[in-house]
Specification:
Blueprint lengths: L2 E5 L4 H13 L4 E6 L11 E4 L5 H10 L6 E4 L20 H22 L9 E6 L15 H24 L3 E7 L2 E2 L16 E2 L1 H14 L8 E3 L8
Parallel strand pairs: 1-2, 1-4, 2-3, 4-5, 5-6, 6-9, 7-8
Helix pairs in contact: 1-5, 2-3, 3-4
The structure holds NADP nicotinamide-adenine-dinucleotide phosphate (NAP).
The site of NADP nicotinamide-adenine-dinucleotide phosphate has 27 residues, from helix 1 and strand 7.
Length: 236
């Protein structure tokens, strides 16, 4: 791995992935992108700003990069903030809530594929991985609730599938995949960690190590699918 782009490097899993790649592939050029440059950002990594809700910033980001990336890792995502909480009931659905969740979990990552997949290395295997979630599996949905988040991840998985079909017509060595990181200790999961069985709440570092193993083992015929941190396919 020589060139890696991490979209959402300010997030727990995005940062842990960059740290882990830096250890496993010390000569790798790491470019991170986020809305703000984190205070503890290493000097030897490049940084670019972008906002998922601003397509022009993604276009600008793509134009500013001239490397051929072996891995593009989209680690952004949204579940809750001070005013938006995952819906427990149909009564909780609201236009603004749904629009916000879909903007950040579906539209932004899809536009990342649009603008950044042309920067993937074509001479050897390259991977475009996006963090999805197991709750985006329709057949695995036994509990209901979390309407917008679940639906946004299911829609993201469909975007990944369609993008893979289109991109793989021309480039067989480009792999587009969704990844479920497990339940990871981060700002995103913080309010919902209470019910997580003991031993099943991962550190971001542990998750990143597992996800990098999955990424490095992905084969061309797995493009368009979604995998968990163990490399097991998540049924749609
Ligand atoms: N943690 C879990 O248990 C878990 C489980 C399953 C799936 N996932 C998925 O994994 C991904 C990462 O989660 P995480 O736990 O690492 O969360 P996190 O620490 O909260 O990171 C979220 C990232 O998304 C970025 N982001 C949010 N809005 C953005 C915007 N408008 N423009 C650009 N970036 C934006 C954040 O940037 P700022 O710093 O600028 O806000 C941050 O880098 C998400 O897609 C999540 O759904 C997580």
């Amino acid at each position: 791995m020589k060139h890696v782009l991490i979209i959402g490097i300010s997030g727990a899993i995005g940062r842990a992935m960059a740290d882990h790649i830096g250890v496993r592939h010390p000569d790798c050029l790491i470019v991170g992108a986020s809305r703000q440059k984190p205070d503890d950002y290493p000097d030897h990594w490049q940084h670019q700003r972008f906002d998922l809700e601003d397509e022009a910033s993604l276009e600008k980001l793509a134009k500013s990069l001239n490397a051929e990336f072996d891995l593009i890792f989209v680690a952004t995502g949204f579940l809750h903030n001070n005013t938006i909480k995952p819906e427990k009931s149909l009564r909780d659905l609201s236009f603004d809530h749904m629009q916000h969740v879909f903007a950040l979990n579906v539209i932004g990552p899809s536009l990342c594929i649009k603008h950044l997949s042309p920067l993937m290395n074509t001479s050897t295997k390259s991977v475009f991985a996006l963090l999805s979630a197991r709750v985006g599996s329709i057949s695995d949905n036994r509990l209901g609730g979390w309407y917008s988040y679940r639906a946004s991840k299911a829609a993201l998985n469909m975007m990944i599938k369609s993008a893979a079909i289109e991109i793989n017509r021309r480039f067989k060595s480009k792999i587009i995949a969704g990844l479920h990181p497990g339940t990871v200790d981060s700002d995103l999961s913080k309010p919902f960690q209470g019910g997580v069985p003991q031993g099943q709440l991962f550190t971001a570092q542990h998750s990143a190590k597992n996800l990098l193993n999955v990424i490095e083992n992905l084969a061309s015929d797995q493009s368009g699918k979604c995998f968990d941190w163990q490399g097991k396919e998540i049924v749609p």
